[in-house]
# Entry
Amino acid sequence: MDDAFDATLGSIWRASGQLLVRKLIEKLERDEAVKIGNVTLVRTGAWIDGSWNILGWKAKPRLVPWTDLKTYGTDGSFYLQSVSDSRLRSQHKFNDVENALVLDEAIRFLFRNDNWRALQHQ
# Structure
């Protein structure tokens, strides 16, 4: 049963997921912002919320350039975080954030071979 589910999900991802990732990258190339969850991607990096939230007051989002971003995953979530300031971090739960999988794959594509550099020369 799990093999059939994995095969079906893999087919759906190849058909539609990669298209969504490509469209996201194309928006960045046109200098359009893309918001998924609590992060906004732009040509120069990602706007990420600060980690504190006191009585409804949240830290203002800050732009973290591609050179200062890292990503990691744990427990069904993936995170975008500033390398230089660990307080700037966004969590995306795959089951709770719509299109978190697309965001994760787009970030991985941009990090692979420093593909984000191509956005700087558009």
About this structure: Residues 66 and 114 are 9 Å apart (CA to CA).
